[in-house]
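Need tokens for this chain, all 275 residues.
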Amino acid sequence: MKKTTLSMMLLGSLLAVGTQAAFAAPDWSKVPKRDVHVFHPGVSPMEWVGKKSAHSGTAGLKKGETCVGCHEEKGALNFDFKRLAGKDMEPKGAPKTMNYPVAVQAAYDASNLYIRLTFKAPAGGADQGDKENEVKATVMFPDAQVQLANQAGCWASCHNDARTMPGADDKKTKYTKAGSYQLMQWKSAKGAKVANGSVTTERKMDGGTLGAQAEGSKSGDTYTVTFTSKNPGEGKAVPFGIAIHGDHSTGRFHHVSLGYTLGVGADGDVKALKQ
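Here are the structure tokens for all 275 residues:
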């Protein structure tokens, strides 16, 4: 009887250890970091991006060039930030900090993809409409049907008639003209629900397919946000973009990344480490 009880206790301990190992979070100290710079885009929706008289990179996009390939040099962005901060591009007023780095790390196991963002969200924004959340962090993944999915990140969801654009319908959300995005968003307010949503003909903050979970913390002036979602499949380079709403900002008054790729057992701008 004692032998049987001891055996059952040992088996239970082994199963518990196995379960903990299967769902253990990555050791982030061993996962490489890749700085991705986010910037305030002003009024530069998809319609602006595709207009040759406004955006000199239109011809390059038609040839298949990526925004990152044109605008990222030696780990920094080469935008004309004075232009982006000017009244033509930002009639409401530009934030004091136009761009800043977000350290991106990624890892995966058989079931899950883990993405960790570390950043200092600066104050001095022109819009402080979200009184509950000092910061929101979002990751978006376009499918292959999204326009410029592999070139321009989340831009295909940003249009000149969506809310917070000058003169636009205040009730119209982000949307796509083809394809869809899956998104996950963490909010800094205590007890805030993690968004597991999508963007198609409209943006929905729930009902997405990522199975997203997230947790975040602030130490001094540095935020660390860790997302967990379903593993998209090994051997894939997955397009993604990130957005940070800092200083209680809403709508288009965020800082966003260009479009990057996340390599899951494959090459990518950010390479996920296998656990």
